[in-house]
Specification:
Strand content of chain A: 35-45%
Largest sheet of chain B: 5 strands, parallel
Number of strands of chain B: 8
Number of helices of chain B: 9
Structural class of chain A: mainly beta
Oligomer: heterodimer
Number of helices of chain A: 1
Strand content of chain B: 5-15%
Largest interface: A-B, 26 and 38 residues
Structural class of chain B: alpha/beta
Distance between the termini of chain A: 38 Å
Strand order of the largest sheet of chain A: 2-1-5-3-4
Largest sheet of chain A: 5 strands, mixed
Distance between the termini of chain B: 61 Å
Shape of chain B: globular
Helix content of chain B: 40-55%
Strand order of the largest sheet of chain B: 3-2-1-8-7
Helix content of chain A: 10-25%
Shape of chain A: globular
């Protein structure tokens, strides 16, 4: 299945958002996620199923004003 | 007092654009700030910059105020606020909905809408707004208990562009904490904001991009303290005519025409 993470295409063999993040190296990291423009809480990632063409946003803390 | 939190420092400091993390840390200390603003950005599977910044922020032991910088729509700002709340574990959000790319002027219509959604969802919203009184009314009605009017466009270093407007806002909202956010360039701008009776100032670029950010942070801290003390001491109103400061009564009469 092809998904887009921060606009980059990835072919993943993962049924859920949590599994996809793990397989792409985000396991255990301080991140927040959105799926197709909607916020997905960390606790909801294991139960959030992915579909072909899904767009995932992964963000982390950054300097800001 | 922001949303029930009492702070002793009236300077809120941004964390962006410093020459190095070490300078940032020293500047924060020199400023005495107890609240620092932060943001969030995309992170790749191989990049770790967000993780190290998170560790740095935690090591400071300060309160963080995440922003929604760069958001141009209500939906974007609301989603970003939710991600920030989880990431930084705080209901505080500096809400920015930008309406114009050149001036970074807030889209006040989107701002009010986003503020209402977020306040209903339990966020403590710090709206980055203009000095417009009616917009401010709408923000308070939407649930904001802090207002953050701009001094001037973000990063412009122009100071207080509309002193009259800021004064009116202060007079109109005596009980809402008011913070001048953005546009300050030098410490005298911060002192002026505090003399108007503003509760605090929020700045970033003026310190971060100064030749010596640490010394400039200290200078701003002194200015904020001076401006606050001056406000409490009830400054004079300007007048048109001179008034001798030395009493005339009892002056020796020495003649001459």
């Amino acid at each position: 299945m092809r998904i887009f993470l921060n606009d980059d295409a990835h072919d993943v063999d993962a049924a859920t958002l949590a599994a996809a993040l793990d397989s792409l190296g985000f396991g255990g990291r301080k991140i927040a996620t959105a799926l197709n423009g909607r916020f997905v809480a960390a606790a909801a990632r294991p139960a959030t199923r992915l579909a072909d063409g899904d767009r995932i946003e992964v963000v982390a803390p950054m300097q800001g004003g | 007092m922001f949303y029930g939190v009492e702070l002793s420092s009236r300077l809120l400091l941004g964390t962006a654009r410093y020459p190095s993390p070490a300078v940032l840390e020293r500047a924060i200390k020199a400023s005495g700030a107890e609240v620092v603003t932060v943001s969030l950005r995309r992170e790749g599977g191989n990049t770790r910059s967000g993780q190290s910044f998170w560790q740095f922020i935690q090591s400071l032991g300060l309160r963080v105020l995440p922003n929604t910088a760069g958001c141009h729509s209500v939906k974007e700002a609301v989603t970003t606020a939710h991600m920030a709340r989880e990431l930084f574990d705080t209901p505080w959000i500096k809400l920015e909905v930008i309406g114009d790319a050149d001036t970074l002027q807030p889209d006040v219509f989107g701002l009010v809408e986003a503020a209402r959604i977020l306040a209903q969802d339990g966020f403590a919203v710090f709206p980055y707004t203009t000095e417009d009184l009616v917009v401010a009314d709408r923000l308070v009605e939407a649930g904001c208990r802090v207002l953050m009017p701009w001094g001037a466009p973000i990063g412009s270093a122009r100071g207080l562009n509309n002193v009259y407007g800021l004064k009116s806002l202060r007079a109109h909202f005596p009980d809402i904490p008011l913070v001048v956010d953005a546009g300050l360039g030098v410490p005298s701008h911060a002192a002026a904001a505090m003399e108007l009776g503003y509760d605090a100032v929020l700045l970033n670029t003026a310190v971060a991009e100064a030749g010596d950010p640490v010394e400039m942070a200290r200078a701003f801290a002194l200015a904020v303290e001076a401006g606050r003390a001056a406000h409490l001491a009830r400054p004079l109103e300007p007048r048109d005519m001179a008034q001798p400061s030395t009493p005339v009564i009892g002056k020796a009469v020495l003649g001459g025409v």
